Amino acid sequence: MPSSFHLLLGALLALGPLSSSAQSARPVEPAPPAPVVADEARKLLGIWAAEPVFGPEVQGELTVVREGGAWRASIAGFEVPGRVDKDVLTVALPGGQGTFRGKVGADGKSLRGHWVQPQVVVGGVQYASPVELRALRKGAWRGTVTPWADRLTLYLGVYERPDGSIGAYLRDPEKGFGRQFAFNVTLREGAVTLVDPRGPTTLEGTHDAGQDRLTVSLFFLGPLQFTRRDRDQAVGLYARTPALGPYVYRAPVAESDGWTTASLQDVGMDPAPIAALMQRILDTEPGPTAKPLIQGVLIARRGKLVVEEYFHGFDKERLHDLRSASKTLAPVLVGTAIEQGAKLSAQTPVYSMFPAYKPSAPLDPRKAQLTLEHLMTMTSGLDCDDNNEESPGGEDRVQSQEGDWYTYTLDLPMGRAPGGPQAVYCTAGINLLGGVVRNATGTWLPEHFERTVARPLQFRRYAMNLMPDGEAYLGGGLYARPRDALKLGQLYLAGGVWKGQRVVSKRWVERSIARHSVMSPERTYGYAWWRHELKVGERVYAEYEAGGNGGQYVMVIPELELTVMFTGGNYGQFNLWKTFREELLPRYILAAVRP
After folding, report:
1. ∠ CA 484-536-295 to the nearest 5 degrees?
2. Between residues 18 and 76, the one the model is more confident about
């Protein structure tokens, strides 16, 4: 279960890996200047960096051997027995230091599964990452475990204001940690104090002048050592490190991940607007004021990847937190379960899919009307509103529960009858779809995702976040390579087919992207797909998207045969990351499409 330690972390990380709401949060303004004081704080001017690494300790080569009916596995100096139950091999390291779950392929040449790592410090959850072991010989398999890296990179920028006072801002390229802080800085006899005058936050530390090293205690992270970085060393703080001059377009390189690549000209797009967008990103300088923080831009047209650019320390292999953009995967998994033969439909009653559920109070008769479609369109009627702190079904309340989150959601009172046009943003309802899929298929959700989505779409790596009971959380927070995440948009643009293989039915795709409910006057909702209309000159284009906190977007513009992905770090700053769609997409990307 999440401890108070991890709940505090989630709050301080501005809605951490499991979180997705706070879309209306405003950008933080710089702290008011402190009175000018004659101290030594100017010695601290510049960029400082700390890079704490928390693990996981167990990773690397995993070898599994079967000798008769006995199984054993070795990794990172551990050698432990395995057990098989219903064809599933489980290998658990002592002390909860990691668990492998997998199955041997029918031909015996592979052993596929997931590695579940211990609860991480940066986020407070567990992740399941795919692992494939290849046969060394009969009865022996070997592969590499690459868990999600539990680390954090923090930058402290110290600067002088026009009045001579010293300020500081805290930034990181991964989580948005510190975006809500803006400090006044003092230094006296080696003692450093950073005070946020808008709130109770005060950080204290020391400056070792001889070593020019700054140590600051940061909440539960404890004392962190910061060292100086110049412009060419601050990877992640600046858009590109080092700065290489004006942007030059280069077509993406084809890899063994399914994407066909081409140039912009090959697919009828003008490189000039795209270059202007990239230059705008490169020209954005870090500082105490909030600015758009774009970490990746990918564009595919006519099924070909034509733009792939990464910024702020990210690259094509680095997994990115999709936040609520991965909510859209929940209805996708319902669709793949149906495609695989599960007896489900959009009209399946939700409570019928939880036969073991025992209500804590007499069941409200309106709950019998609740269907999967109501969950997928956020019209469940449950008292669940992520934008209302008093709602018992709000995301933060659900994640603070010690027990089963599915049961807690099923126990929620009804606020109104299911259905109707008005949607209410409810993460718990989307997550509950996972319980339906699990019960309908009898399969652990990471295994179902791997078999029906990740493998057909040729995902290379990902990290699936888990609930306290070890089941996958579908309310947001999947980590994936942007090249792989963009395939979700391409899959739906192609009517449910990727590289000639059907993943979901065309009918399911059509129902998913159709209008089912209304979030706001200009934002309608399908099956966890947001729907908009975008104007470019005199033209209006229909667009649907998976969207997540911070600027995580998988966008589809069917009329132009276009899919676009943004990844970003503007967590909790909806007024900034909504401009990715409202301004940047039409002004630069749609404008680049030639008639």
Report:
1. 35
2. 76
Q: What is the pTM of this model?
A: 0.94
For strand 166-171 and strand 182-188, is the pairing parallel, antiparallel, or unpaired? antiparallel
Residue that has been written with the tokens 């590109």 in this structure: 240
List the structure tokens of 463: 């990290």
User: Distance between CA atoms of 557 and 547, rounded to whole angstroms?
Assistant: 14
- Residue 433: pLDDT over 80: yes
Question: Under DSSP, is residue 327 helix (H, G, I), strand (E, B) or coil?
Answer: helix
**Residues 191 and 209: beta-carbon distance below 8 Å:** no
Q: In 3D, which of 8, 44, 33 has the Cα closest to residue 193?
A: 44
Tens digit of each residue's pLDDT (9 = 90 or more) over 257-281: 999 999 999 999 999 999 999 999 9
Owner of token pair 């579940």: 116
Backbone φ, ψ for residue 143 (5° rounding): -160, -175
Task: Please report the pLDDT score of residue 10 as a whole number.
Answer: 44
Contact 81, 89 (CB under 8 A): no
Is residue 167 a contact partner of residue 30, using CB atoms and an 8 Å limit?
Answer: yes
Task: Tell me the two tokens of residue 41.
Answer: 């704080």
Binning pLDDT at 50, 70 and 90, where does residue 244 land? Answer: confident
CA–CA separation, 241 vs 238, rounded Å?
Answer: 7
- Separation of alpha carbons 309 and 251, rounded Å: 10
Q: Which helix (H) or strand (E) holds 213?
A: strand 213-217
* Cα separations in angstroms, 497 against 171, 261, 273: 40, 18, 30
Find all residues with CB under 8 Å of 445, minimum gap 6, and list them. Answer: 333, 434, 437, 438, 464, 471, 472, 474
Query: 554-559, long-range: CB within 8 Å, 24+ apart, which pairs?
Result: 554/325, 554/328, 554/485, 554/486, 554/488, 554/489, 555/489, 555/581, 555/585, 556/489, 556/492, 556/493, 556/513, 557/590, 558/493
Instruction: Tell me which residue of 312, 321, 319 sits closest to 153, measured CA to CA.
Output: 312
What span, in angstroms and rounded, lies between the C-alpha atoms of 333 and 49?
41
- Tokens representing 222 are 């404890």
User: Quick check: 404 and 458 in contact, CB under 8 A?
Assistant: no
pLDDT in tens, 393-405: 999 999 999 899 9
